[in-house]
Amino acid sequence: MKSFTDGMQYLDAQFKKLELPDTHYTDIEFEECLFEDCDFSRAKFKQCKFINCDFIRCNLSLIDLTGSKLFGATFQESKLIGVDWTKATWPVYHLDFELKFQRCILNDSSFFGLTLNELIADACKLHEVDFREGDFRKSTLSGCDFTHSLFMNTNLENVDFSESTDFAINVLENKVKGARFSRYEASSLLELLGIELVD
After folding, report:
1. Which residues does UniProt assign to the signal peptide (predicted)?
2. How far apart, in whole angstroms, are the C-alpha atoms of residue 61 and residue 40?
């Protein structure tokens, strides 16, 4: 297969080494599909559905998901730079969309205002990612690099930040009750309050 067909349904299909940058698709449903070593950079998937799909070593940078729905999607060792996740459709009757990112690069992305409880990001790069106004309760964001990422009015209750680094989270401007941080990195939370730590 060299491309997809608009309006089609793909069930339990495997797509390997597809090179489809800058392509446009509409109203396609993918369920239980595997995407491996594919390039969908700058592609547009509008009004599509990705249900229980796995993306392994794919390039999804600057992908446009306007009006699309994702549930149970797993991304492994993939590039998702500059993705505006707010363009996708996130039904209000769901709080947990079972999204999982493992060893991915999500720099310059936006989750502004989204409710994505129990989101999983493991050993990911999350530089300059916008988490403001979002609700990420009970998420696992461990082993990640949050350099210059934005948190403001963000619900981070019971989030596991263990082994994560370089976050700037003001505990007065975000909900952090029950959140877990590595002991050394937790000191940065106090520095934002103007508290000086001494040995």
Report:
1. none
2. 7
- Our CA angle for 120, 136, 88, nearest 5°, is 80
Q: Which residues contact 196 (CB under 8 A, 6 or more apart)?
A: none
CB 69 within 8 A of CB 87: no
Please write the tens of the pLDDT for every residue from 20-46: 999 999 999 999 999 999 999 999 999
Going from the C-alpha of 136 to that of each of 112, 141, 185, the distances in angstroms are 11, 10, 20
Tokens of 189: 């939370």
pLDDT in tens, 6-24: 999 999 999 999 999 999 9
- Reduced to 3 states (helix: H, G, I; strand: E, B; else coil), residue 189 is helix
For 167, counting Cβ atoms within 10 Å of its Cβ (0-12 exposed, 13-18 middle, 19+ buried), the class is: buried
Domain 96-199 matching CATH 2.160.20.80: the answer reads yes
Average pLDDT value for residue range 41-62? 98
Q: Give the pair of three-digit tokens for residue 26.
A: 């509409």
> For the chain, which residues make up each domain, given as ranges?
9-74, 96-199
CB neighbour class for 3 (10 Å; exposed up to 12, middle 13-18, buried from 19)? exposed
